[in-house]
What does this fold into?
Amino acid sequence: MGIANLSNAAAIVGAAESDVIGYPEDLTGHKVTSLQHHIQAIKNVSELTGIPISDIQGIFSAGWSGELAEHLGLRPRYLDTTSVGGCSFQIHVHHALAAIHAGIIDIALVSHGEAGWSYRGGGGGGGGRGQISPGAEMTAAYGTFGAPSQYAHAMVRHFHQFGTSQEDFAHISVVTRDWAQLNPRAVMYGKKQSPFGGPITVQDVLDARVIAWPLTLYHCCLVSDHGGAVIVAKPEIARSLRTNPVWVSGAGESMGHQNILEMDDFTATSASRSAATAYKMAGLGPQDMEMAMIYDSFTITAGITAEMLGLAPRGRGYTLWKDGHAAPGGRLPINTNGGGLSFNHSGMYGMQLLVEAYRQLSRTAEDGVNGIEGKQTEATACVVNGTGGTLSTTGTLVLTSDDR
Amino acid sequence: MAYNKPIPPQGQHTKPFWEGAKAGKLMLPRCADCNRVHWYPRLICPFCHSTNLEWIEGSGKGRLHTFAVQHRAFGGWAEEVPYVTAYIDLDEGDRMMTVLRGVDATKPEEIDIGARVQVEFEQANEDTCIPFWRVCDASSDESGA
It folds into this structure.
């Protein structure tokens, strides 16, 4: 069975964030709910593109699609509420591409709002109605809680297989922080935003408080608030708007496991498969990528994923940061917003990846909303990879600029 | 002292495991068709999709696949930080999570990936014994190599 070639069958025509991200209560004196983040971002992307909210035909979100449609007074003809962790939004774009290519819809909204800090501890993995999955039953006794407690096992295995060290991965934290200093909306932009903000050194990373060895605090992402929305549309519409289209040239998704207990190789994720699908669709390969947006829940996530995307040899993903290639002015800029490590991480970070990739490839990264001089790259092709769960699920997009 | 750490609720199809644990046995699910052991216990064989599953008594031996040192934990485990969590490659195949005993959590660089390990059980309450794994002395493990 052949697969239809969906390459460039749709474009991202705009991306926007909610009005106040990071720690809204510190900045405004009041909390902003996840729904408010959604609606603000949707309103903003509608105004940016000139597409009325009433023209949206399909709604894609991580569990929110029914509520959003109702709140917006829409009667969508395509609903997708796939929620498989932080890569859900890359997967939504993949699904929107397919739905548009099939002619079911012309305009898709992908939205996310998550008050990950302000309402921390209030929710959780829902839906069990008192039942426990057998995977959880066999791991619940051991006191691990939260992502760092599990991701640390992957880093130790990487040390063992490839002879890497905490210091090697610390370079990812340092370079990502360099990017955050070019982004005024980054939580770690400077001391004014956070007492931990501003530049850091490898030694700072090594000396930071241990969360789950070998992960110190600076190997771990932020916990903050964010809302973001993108609109995906068919080419005829994309070419008619005042915003620059960014083409969805390739898309793929895959998963390795749900529970990390089932992870075959702790140093490899399904991004190798989701990326292979995306590259093939795009007719491009890793050597063609001029920047990358890589989910960095932890330094290990980014390092491994760079390997899975073919941007560096196995075991050597961290060298992209250590050797300066990923840094401002480098040959392969990575995580130009400051990443989940230093910009913003609300829990499911894939939307932040999308917004930044759109801004870079649409040449609006220095539009005054989200960037200062030096942040805009010249990249015409960007690989975007979300990782969800516990190194579990992945969605990969190959995005290209209209001037490529 | 009463056991003060999380005690997992027991599912409907995992009873033989928990009954075995109370008797000090590591019971493992095996597919009677393809003969492979899997972990965690499934309703269907994840390899050949047969539902013809059985329980066997495992050797209780394995090797350390990877580990981490937890410096932050909740409930009863908070009193034990730092402690070592680990994934164990069972001699019968597939992998199990645990808290690893017999290692120094303050010297993670001295913990050997690939080390031989053996299961042991701790009684948590009347119905539940929790499996833990311990690094073997070289002399006490005849199958080690």
In short: Chain B touches chain A through 41 residues (CB under 8 Å).
